[in-house]
Amino acid sequence: MMKTTKSKAHLFDELIRGNLEFRDEDFVLGSESEYAEVLNHIQEHKYYTNKTIPFEMSYPDAAYAWFEEVYEPVTLAIDTHRLVKAMPGSSRGELYLWVSRHWHFLKERMGQGVSADYAVLNFGRRFSRDIRHRTIFFLLEIKAYLRLKSIPST
Predict the structure, then answer these.
(1) What sign does the dihedral 78-82-87-90 (CA atoms) show?
(2) Could you list the residue range(s) of the whole structural domain that residue 142 is in?
(3) Is there a contact between 151 and 110 (Cβ–Cβ < 8 Å)?
(4) How confident is the model at residue 18 (pLDDT cuts 50, 70, 90)?
(5) How many CB atoms lie within 10 A of CB 149?
(6) In the chain, how many domains are there?
(7) Is residue 102 over pLDDT 80?
(8) What average pLDDT is seen over the chain?
(9) Quick check: is 75 in a domain?
(10) What pLDDT digit, counting tens, does each position of 69-91 carry?
(11) Which of 22, 83, 128, 147 is most buried (CB neighbours < 10 A)?
């Protein structure tokens, strides 16, 4: 007898689409490996959250917490800086994943003080297809960088 397994996209939909806040999101990714990567983000969020609380967070609760504490701040920065407009044909889900990867890279290079806002600006400057958008992102990035450098280290 053959065992059937659900696709990562299907598992993601079952886990996330049950959250009312997420139902209307434009969360489309291009491959199973990208859905697996986002499911891993949720699993990591669950792991780190469980280290700080006196009980075991369920996977559905972790998905909700990931949505509010990780996904929403990144997509708020994406929306604030109109990254979707600068990257035509890209979904918010794809942009979330790409910016998250880029943010991780920036934090390794520049330290943990890098914000999602700065990551979006840096990503837009580097990967926007239009010179006008890259220029706007560049100017905003300089301003954000100067703000970042003015914050005293703890």
Answers:
(1) positive
(2) 30-149
(3) no
(4) low
(5) 9
(6) 1
(7) yes
(8) 86
(9) yes
(10) 999 999 999 999 999 999 998 98
(11) 83
Buried-exposed string 64-101: b where 16+ CB fall within 10 A, e elsewhere: bebbeebbbebbebbeebebbebbeebbbbbbbbbbbe
Tell me, yes or no, whether 93 lies in a domain: yes
What pLDDT score does 151 carry? Answer: 61
Q: Evaluate whether 119 touches 145 at the Cβ level (below 8 Å).
A: no
Question: 152: part of which helix (H) or strand (E)?
Answer: none
- Using CA atoms, how far apart are residues 94 and 91, in angstroms rounded to an integer? 5
Paired tokens of 16: 């996330």
Residue 77 lies in a domain: yes
Instruction: Report the C-alpha gap between 49 and 53 in whole angstroms.
Output: 7
Give me the mean pLDDT over the 83-109 stretch: 93
- Whether 105 shows a pLDDT value over 70: the answer reads yes
Distance (Å, whole) CA 38 – CA 35: 5
> What region, left, alpha or beta, does residue 54 occupy, with left being phi > 0 and alpha being psi -120 to 50 degrees?
alpha
